[in-house]
Design brief:
By secondary structure, the protein is of the alpha+beta class. The chain contains 3 helices and 4 strands. The chain starts with 6 loop residues before the first helix and ends in a 22-residue tail after the last strand.
Length: 109
């Protein structure tokens, strides 16, 4: 189940991903079961995964990102240019500490 990120958490993850290298490339074959399995496997070692979508790949980049996030039970952080960033928190040993989600102010006060 993907988690919902606040804009502050999303911005923090984007800043971490900015200097990270893309681990996978999606080409003309699209999102294959082997690619999905490899991305799933990479979440065993890291919580943030960056992908590059090549120009030969068909489809909308956001849809590709959402499909991969759904299949890997991760959260789509951003799609920027031809890059997709996914986040999946390690349930046993979280390595990335997200900023706390602040409670919304009441409208009456």
């Amino acid at each position: 189940m993907a988690m919902t990120l606040t804009s502050k958490q999303r911005a923090y993850l984007r800043s971490l991903a900015q200097n990270a290298d893309a681990l996978f490339q999606i080409g003309k074959d699209g999102v294959t079961p082997q690619l999905t399995a490899a991305i799933e496997e990479s979440f065993n070692n890291r919580e943030l995964v960056k992908l590059t979508v090549l120009k030969t790949a068909d489809g909308d980049l956001r849809e590709i990102g959402e499909m991969i996030a759904g299949r890997t039970r991760s959260t789509l952080v951003e799609v920027i240019g031809r890059k997709i960033v996914l986040y999946k928190q390690d349930p046993d040993d979280p390595k990335i500490v997200l900023p706390k989600a602040t409670a919304k102010k009441s409208e009456n006060g």
